[in-house]
Design brief:
3 domains; alpha/beta; 7-stranded antiparallel beta sheet; 607 residues; Rossmann fold; binds 6-O-phosphono-alpha-D-glucopyranose; 8-stranded antiparallel beta sheet
Length: 607
């Protein structure tokens, strides 16, 4: 959350900064700003709201300069207005920041007592004034930053420029991600490789605690302890095409439609189709020794864990505990020796998930992760990582990352079942065959887009919407409700269908659409009874089932979508797609900002 970029260039950098910020807007869009040096002096342009407001400000008052920094903000401390917009600056120093400086109040009090005047309500301004104070004492920019970094508590990724120093930029990270881009006679900093994708494909990922001193010709990296260190340069594979909308109206729609392809790409990494087996990457411990598993994540990734719990308990016969990261890390859960914890995160940078990972590691757990960004911090700090091949996901509401997470978790559940001796080869082969079919079936599901768009008109009129499901489709009900809340701002709840009679049934009337997710599996009849209970109370049901389910009960519902019939094992992967499309079209009808819904950010790097 919050995106940062910095460039020491050969010519004016402002346009490149703005281009980079466009790619980072998914990290927050409460305000945006840039700062450059003009004849050695710091100049800034900042604007409240989305990047387009900054673009207008720059059109009205252009900004030159061959070194500069830029920021797109997700507000934490201080309301989203221009005064709180980054970069923050004194006459000597300008800073962009992602993260939270937790001891900023103490630093602010100390600096105010020394005569520093603060112009914003942000924690970040303490960074600027502290570095300035050290420079006032005679320290060089580099020494002033080194001294300041020792005094910050909390999380940060920083990019810093200094008045009078056209060939210097300093970056630092603790907690929040930061990458260095290497150009030819120019150097870059960015929150991620996507931000730098138009500028360079040579990227160096800083490790936690690192700070980096850049000039036009290169970079020197130091550890938190101040020792010079080399970090590998990697070739980033983010092409411009991968981060464009490709002719779709929104990133979200493009990403929904990419699912057959990326599910197939992800499966290829785990399946041996000839042998009909699953192959996991090498693990530094024996899976068969795992007696208990903890699954941790946030947001949509947490719902993927919820589906995985059903799969793993059924196939591997070991107890699975799941929790949202922000709760797990503080509830002092007992962890068994030799246990394993698996962390699921699209970005691989979510602050709560990362903190929970470190907590589990400190308690001796084997650490596994499922991430979409191979170079992310969560991947780097895991004993083994299983990658989703979703490609860059830009829409704030997660879609293709979720279904590819499910695919990886399904493969993991099968491999664990085999390692534990709980399933035989024949069962493994059946499950693999079911997975191999998913890309083709996902394409068929997309054929229902037109009908879902029609149904969205009804949903758009509702104030509340209920989603019901059982078994592995209960988390899909919750994910469907989350998608709707995130992008349409309609209140929605996902409930275990059997639990409806213990409360939510009181909400049912003709104005509350009820989305029932019920493939024909062993729980179908039970969910069908719950659907009857809704209909008996005047509720209007949108029934998501398969061809046999629709034939049996479709006439009862106000509307029915008959998806292809698949092995119930893979059904949650497919049923995720219609709830995504329903939310998407409802948002379009309501005219909300689909890709950048209010108050949200895609990568949440604050706790
Ligand atoms: C944010 C995003 C969600 C995402 C969650 C976890 O809330 O808006 O789409 O599911 O973070 O993110 P992660 O990158 O850890 O999967």
């Amino acid at each position: 959350m919050c995106g940062i970029i910095g460039i020491i260039g050969k010519q004016d950098v402002t346009q490149h900064l703005v281009d980079g910020l466009k790619r980072l807007e998914y990290r927050g869009y409460d305000s945006a700003g840039v700062a450059t040096l003009i004849n050695g002096a710091i100049e800034r342009r900042r604007a409240e709201g989305k990047l387009e407001n900054l673009v207008r400000a720059l059109e009205a008052k252009p900004l030159a300069g061959d070194v500069g920094i830029g920021h797109t903000r997700w507000a934490t401390h201080g309301i989203p207005n221009e005064a709180n917009a980054h970069p923050h600056a004194t006459a000597k120093v300008a800073v962009v920041h992602n993260g939270i400086i937790e001891n900023f109040q103490e630093l602010k009090a100390e600096l105010t007592a020394k005569g520093h005047v603060f112009a914003s309500d942000t924690d970040t301004e303490a960074v600027v004034h502290l570095i300035t104070a050290y420079m006032d004492e005679g320290l060089s920019p580099k020494d002033a930053v080194a001294a300041s970094l020792k005094r910050f508590d909390g999380a940060f990724a920083l990019a810093i420029i200094f008045a009078g120093h056209h060939d210097l930029m300093i970056g630092a990270r603790r907690g929040s991600p930061l990458a260095v881009g290497l150009g030819d006679g120019e150097m870059f900093l960015g929150s991620d490789a996507i931000a730098l994708s138009r500028l360079t494909n040579r990227v160096m990922y800083l490790e936690d605690g690192d700070w980096a001193v850049l000039d036009k010709s290169g970079v020197e990296v130091f550890t938190e302890a101040g020792e010079a260190v080399e970090r590998p340069v990697r070739i980033s594979d983010f092409s411009d095409a991968a981060v464009g909308k490709g002719g779709y109206a929104h990133f979200m729609l493009k990403e929904i439609y990419e699912q057959p392809q990326v599910i197939g790409d992800t499966l290829t990494g785990f399946i041996n189709p000839a042998l009909r087996t699953i192959t996991l990457p090498d693990l530094p411990f024996d899976l068969s020794t795992v007696t208990r598993l903890t699954l941790i994540a946030c947001g949509t990734s947490f719902y993927a864990c919820q589906v995985a719990r059903y799969w793993i308990e059924k196939l591997a016969r070991i107890p699975v505990e799941i929790d949202v990261a922000s709760e797990f890390r503080y509830r002092d859960a007992p962890m068994v020796a030799g246990g394993a914890a698996l962390f699921v995160s699209q970005s691989g940078e979510t602050a709560d998930t990362l903190a929970a990972l470190r907590h589990a590691k400190a308690h001796g757990q084997h650490i596994l992760s499922v991430v979409n960004v191979a170079q992310s911090t969560i991947a780097r700090e895991s004993d083994a990582t299983f990658l989703t091949y979703a490609g860059p996901e830009v829409g704030v509401a997660s879609t293709k990352a979720f279904t590819t997470q499910l695919v990886v978790l399904a493969c993991f559940a099968i491999a664990l079942g085999r390692a534990k001796g709980a399933i035989d080869h024949e069962r493994e082969a059946q499950l693999v065959e079911a997975l191999v079919e998913v890309p083709a079936r996902a394409s068929e599901v997309l054929n229902h887009d037109g009908r879902l768009k029609e149904l969205a008109h009804e949903v758009a009129k509702a104030r509340d919407v209920l989603y019901l499901g059982r078994g592995t489709n209960y988390p899909i009900a919750m994910e469907g409700a989350l998608k709707l809340k995130e992008i349409t701002y309609i209140h929605a709840e996902g409930y275990a269908a059997g639990e409806m009679k213990h409360g939510p049934i009181a909400l049912i009337d003709k104005n509350v659409p009820v989305i029932v997710i019920a493939p024909t599996d062993e729980l179908f009849e039970k969910t069908a009874s719950n659907m009857q209970e809704v209909i008996a109370r005047g509720g209007r049901v949108i029934f998501l089932s398969d061809v046999p389910g629709a034939a049996k009960l479709g006439n009862l519902a106000a509307a029915t979508i008959a998806l292809p019939q698949v092995d119930p094992f893979v059904a949650p992967i497919l049923y995720a797609i219609p709830v995504q499309l329903l939310a998407y079209h409802t948002a379009c009808i309501k005219g909300t900002d689909v890709d950048q819904p209010r108050n949200l950010a895609k990568s949440v790097t604050v706790e």
